[in-house]
Amino acid sequence: MTIRASLLLLLGLFSSTGSVVAAPGQELIADREFRLGFILWEPKPGRHVRYGELTTGAAKPVWGLSQWSSRFPLNAAEAYKSADGSLTCSNLAKLLQFGAGTTNPVLVLAADSSIEYGLPARNAKDPWVHLLVEQEFAESPPLPELAEARFRVEARLARSRNRHRDDYSPDRHAAQFQIFFTVQNRNRQSAGFGDLLWFGVPVYDNRDRFAKEFKARDFGGTAKFIFTPGGETYAKVSAHDGNWITLERDLLPLMREALETAWKRGFLAASKNPADYRIGGMNMGWELPGSFDVEMQVRGLSLKVIPRVNP
């Protein structure tokens, strides 16, 4: 796995990327149509350093854009606006498009990691390229107070081309589009305040029509527990076919299972009280340990929490 956006949600609980106050029955994700833009973070992993904003000017962005380990960070000065109202920013290695003035706008995340790596292919011990959009939720309710956490998103794989030249190894080279939520201890009086697990929604993995489950320690930097059910958990149609697919699920039972599994395996040991844990935030996008030319289109992103009648 990866540094998971360099501990954005662990080290910056209430950062300037914006926050969402979650009222009962309300949407947790702010600017879910990506109309406002993005804070641009420096690509060096380890901490978030703002180097600019890519914005439509309507209001301050609530999303951050992470390009960890990229040699080609996007330059907001080179962005241009299309006739449909969308804003496009691109360079040799990546493209971001958002904010179209339609009733159902599409976010486009595209990258060519073969340009990032060049030749030879990336080694197993080298960092890999990311293109992720990120957001925190400042005051989501504790998990025991929820009846449901309704997640939904539509996605379309526009392209995924393997650029390796007889050096492809699927155990270290891949193209993955994923969504991760944090389940985080937000109780300041708890000894485990700030600790978290990563809860995954796999959208695409070049190696399998439906991504395989992954329930283990993050070997990419955070050392936190990752709980990612298999791709069939969220969709019955594969992104590999290149059509629009819908991923949807009540995440709450799975997040409870993730907590129980983490505790059984020795993670989050400072607190085993479910009331300490909330949905802390999210990131979504490409992780490219391999040399691939990829593009994903996303629309209709939503995470709505429903309260219990008698929490």
- Compute the separation of the termini in Å: 35 Å
Global shape: globular
Query: What percentage of residues falls in helices of 4 or more residues?
Result: under 10%
**What is the count of helical runs?**
3
Largest sheet: 9 strands, mixed
The low-confidence runs, each spanning 5 or more residues with pLDDT under 50, are 5-23
**Overall number of structural domains:** 1
Oligomerization state:
single chain
Number of strands: 16
Q: Which secondary-structure class do the elements indicate?
A: mainly beta
What string gives the helices and strands in order?
HEEEEEEEHEEEEEEEHEE
- What average pLDDT do the residues reach? 90
The largest beta-sheet arranges its strands as 2-1-3-8-15-10-11-13-12
Q: What percentage of the residues does DSSP assign to strands (E)?
A: 35-45%
Radius of gyration, CA atoms, in whole angstroms: 18 Å
Explained architecture:
The chain has 311 residues and is mostly beta strands. It has one domain. Helices cover 8% and strands 38% of the residues. It contains 3 helices and 16 strands. The strands form 2 sheets. The protein has a 9-stranded mixed β-sheet, with helices on both faces. It is globular and about 50 Å long. The two termini are 35 Å apart. The relative contact order is 0.23. Residues 5-23 have low confidence and may be disordered.
